[in-house]
Write a structure and sequence with these properties.
Blueprint lengths: L4 H8 L24 E3 L2 H10 L5 E3 L13 H4 L9 H7 L3 E3 L19 E2 L7 H14 L3 H18 L7 E4 L5 E3 L4 H8 L3 E2 H5 L4 E3 L2 H7 L3 E5 L8 H4 L11 E4 L10 H15 L7
Helix pairs in contact: 5-6, 6-11
Pfam family, one: Peripla_BP_2
Keywords: Signal
Protein name: Iron complex transport system substrate-binding protein
Length: 285
């Protein structure tokens, strides 16, 4: 994750695979194509919107239609929203609960022990995880062929991109100086298009703070930044606009394409490759 830290921590609680081992729902085998599917996290929302029939979706989170966070905001518009309310979920009586979140201090603890069929997905740290999630979701909602078609399109689109980065070094630099490191979906995305993650060079973990002085000393060929940080709105974004960074070419992508491991990964790869082709790196001496 690479959102501002408080939101990153909040979303970590609702990411597929983030539920504790004592998840409150019992997994129930499917007996028919589900018709009242409820999603309880943003990442599940996006797969559900892409793979299920609209008529099957009984509820998504309030983030699903947020264009700043969701890659399917337009498609999700008008879908019923499920708040953090056990009563609302009980009233729907879902036949599939998708993306079960952590339940500590949550009103949804009232759902413990209810015999709902559930689907929980592993957090994606590489493209192979996205493929697995698409396949698992498509099967669960009763549209396996739809999932395979989407996987085929993603693979073909990625194959067409190649590796335009050609070994250039890039830093995924975020507000307040946070840099996305190794073992993350962003790192996998960078390597896929031929970029070297500066975090790897520096031996940094999945998320770390890098000062302006450290960034200038490291001299990456590119800075990858979120579209939402293009304007100075607070101290967190002000750092990204310091004049000492002006000489480093920027690759800009929406946060909504990388906040979850989903098909928007391909859109991010395409956009990054296009910008590399039109904005050559200034090779540092």
């Amino acid at each position: 994750m690479h959102l501002r830290v408080p939101l990153a921590l909040a979303l970590a609680l609702i990411t597929p695979g983030g539920a504790a081992a004592d998840a409150p729902y019992r997994s129930v085998p499917a007996t028919a194509k589900p018709q009242r599917i409820v999603s309880l996290n943003l990442c599940a929302d996006q797969l559900l919107v892409l793979l299920a029939d609209r008529s099957q979706i009984a509820g998504v989170t309030r983030y699903a239609a947020d264009p700043g966070l969701s890659a399917v905001a337009r498609q999700a518009k008008g879908l019923p929203v499920v708040r953090n309310s056990a009563e609302q979920v009980l009233a729907i009586n879902p036949d599939l609960v998708f993306g079960t979140p952590a339940f500590a201090s949550s009103p949804l603890t009232a759902l413990r022990g209810r015999r709902y069929r559930t689907l929980e997905l592993k957090s994606a740290t590489q493209f192979a995880d996205i493929v697995a999630s698409v396949r698992q979701t498509a099967a669960a909602v009763g549209h396996p062929a739809r999932g395979e078609a989407l996987i085929a399109r993603m693979r073909a689109d990625l194959a067409a991109i190649g590796r335009p980065g050609q070994g250039a070094v890039a830093a995924y630099y975020q507000r307040r100086g946070y840099m996305t490191g190794t073992g993350t979906l962003v790192d996998d995305l960078m390597r896929r298009i031929g970029l070297v993650n500066l975090a790897t060079r520096l031996g940094r973990p999945a998320l770390s703070q890098v000062s302006l002085e450290e960034m200038i000393a490291a001299r990456p060929d590119y800075l990858i930044v979120e579209a939402g940080t293009q304007r100075v709105e607070d101290q967190g974004t002000e750092m990204l606009h310091h004049r000492v960074l002006d000489a480093i070419p920027r690759i800009v992508i929406p946060q909504s394409w990388t906040v979850c491991g989903g098909p928007a990964y391909v859109r991010a790869a395409q956009a990054m490759a296009h910008q590399i082709a039109t904005r050559p790196a200034i090779k540092q001496k």
